Amino acid sequence: MDLNILWFILIATLFCVYFFLDGMDFGIGMMVPFLGKTDKLNRKMIYAIGPTWGASEVWLLTAGGAMFAAFPGWYATMFSGFYPALFLLLFALIVRGISIEFRGKTTSANSKKAYNTGIGFGNFLAPLLLVVAIACLLRGVPIDESQEYTGTLFSLFSPFTLFAGITGIAYFIYHGAVVLCLKLSDEIKETREIGKKAGLITIILLLVTTVFSALETDIFKKPVSIVAAIVMLILIILSYLSFLKKVGKITVILNALFTVSVIVTVFSAMFPRVMVSDTSDEYSLTIYNIASGNYTLTVISVVTLTLLPIVIGYTLWTHYIFSKKLNEDIEY
Amino acid sequence: MDILVLSRIQFAVTTIFHFLFVPLTIGLSVYVAVFETIGYIKKEVTYNKLAGFFGKLFIINYAIGVVTGIVQEFEFGMNWSGYARFVGDVFGAPLAIEALSAFFLESTFLGVWIFGKNRLPKKIQVMSIWLVAIASNISAYWILVANSFMQEPTGYEIKDGRAVMTDFFALIFNKHVALQFFHTFMAAIVTAACFVIGISAYKILKQKEINTFIPAFKIGVVTCIIGVLGVAMAGDMQGKYLVINQPMKMAAVEALWDTEKSADFSIIAGIDEKNEEKNFSLEVPGLLSFLAYGNFDSEVQGIKDLQKEYEATYGEGNYIPPVTITFWSFRFMIGLAGLMILICLLAVLKMKNNKFISTKWLLILSICLIPMPFISNSCGWVVTEVGRQPWIVYKLLTVDQAVSKSVSSGWVLVSLIGFILIYSFTSVITIGLMIKTAKKEA
User: Fold this and answer.
1) What global pTM score does this model have?
2) Residues of chain A with pLDDT under 50
3) How many structural domains comprise chain A?
4) Across the A/B interface, how many CB contacts are shorter than 8 Å?
5) Can you say how many angstroms the Cα of residue A54 is from the centroid of all Cα atoms in its chain?
6) Residue A331: what pLDDT?
7) Does the interface predicted TM-score (ipTM) exceed 0.85?
8) CATH number for the domain that contains residue A65
9) Most C-beta atoms within 10 A of its C-beta, which of A18, A178, B281, B335?
10) Mean pLDDT of all residues in chain B?
11) Do A79 and B81 touch (CB under 8 A)?
């Protein structure tokens, strides 16, 4: 396997972990303004994401850094091309970050309400834009022969990308509800109800998105992507069934596998491209025409393969020690 | 407005704002770790209280650093895609390694430290906060590796119009990094020291928990003096280094238009950039030559000669950085550093028998220390980055070649306004929160 492929897989992996981890924050965060009529439940919800959102965001930061280091042309074209969307993404991430942090330190009921809105807004807008952006990489955007993006903000939206975006939102709410049910010891009923609705909506929307993807993307042109897409649909249904029966760790594991299957579907359909040009497929960015040299790829491979297992190790350790049920004596 | 100008303003605004928080994070993490460790070893409640108290302030500060940091990484691609394309092969690696080696460690163990307070053994708490402190410093190192490539490119070759890494170790052991890291680390210590001194002085002035904050005040004063001396030492070495490696930056810092033997150092001056001269200046004879070469007679190259030299090598163009900004930023930076050390020395004089606790004017001066390093740090970066203009990578790529071509200036204006609004809101709330938290009992 050459290093270009290794980095393609590593970046896909970083996005997988990011969406799985920050997906919990997105989901729980979106429910904050609506769920939790009592301040106590509200605080518990924020406590559920308070210790981890910062570390989750680092996975996104690392994915960005990895794109920059391994495929600078991808990073340059995508980040400048998607400028308005990425600005709104940054704005959303800032709003949710400071809202979570400031929420815990205010006593005024009005400020709390305002920060709850901020948490909900940021955790809604950020995943919406991220999913739309990734859907765009696959569907294709206007890119010219000099690898520059030639579209506008509106070139990013099509039925496929929009449905992908709202499917993402529905899924993250479902995922958040699953995790929250596991973390709460009481007041679980309301969350379960939301989870039931969101899960069902996710399945329906995902089917619609898959149909649109057949029209707009290459998912059904590649055997690996077809298999991954079928596995993806099976996994979300299995996850939902297990949630309906009794929410448990198995539901979370199925969600993790579902996230993997989505990313595999998208990235295998793109491969070896990282950004499809709908101007002409010749202009598409691939892991070979926008990559760093072999020397750089070797250096970052050695460093990453040394450090990543350590990072995964202590990340799992902290999630393990903090996975216990939430207590009353919380800081938020 | 022109996209280059807007992009530069946005980068300056977001970077300066981000770097208000970073040095305090780097420095204060060390102080909290030290307090926590002393508390653990000596089993003294005072130090545990101090660790908890400054820890709370540290957390507020850290969160803002995280949310503003991600903006920085994205901007290289969003606003400077020409730069990202040209330099990504070299510049991307330290950024990726920074995230992997430092950010995960820092954010994860800060979480452990905060939320493990009543759940985990004390030993793990102490270890966690040290890991946070170490990680902040590792991250500083990697980002300075990246920055140093812009100042003094090493370990690369130009291939098909792009910089390609050829020697990783030349990149990470760039001499520019060593000096810059030492300077930045010491400045971070000073920033945190002034923060600790100022808040302790406030507590003592208000007669609150005096016994807890006396040791904090003393530790702050002593380390602040060491820190400022360290910064001065690093700065001196950097000056001597830069006069050879980036002579134009040094000439701009001194507003030295003409090459001079036994060059004077202007303490203040009226600078006329248009006519390339000084209207007036207050000078110390020969000092500039001494600072640059350790010898009062040496010749220091002036801006006009360097401009001619650069035009001969790199073609027609203006290679002169904005002189006024560079000149004054440098003077504010060292001026404030001088003021800080002066206040700390006055505090030392009152250290015997804890006389400072009843010396009101000294305590008020000490509170005034808090903002000084923040201004000084920002000025330092203005000197470094503005003094590098018009280059984005010194002698390889200029800023107008680096700016994104596919972005409309309208959107940059929108994002600039957006960032200014959200950052202003954040600053007001953060400062309010810090004051509120500082007023609470330790």
Assistant:
1) 0.90
2) 328-332
3) 1
4) 210
5) 14
6) 47
7) yes
8) 1.20.1630
9) A178
10) 90
11) yes
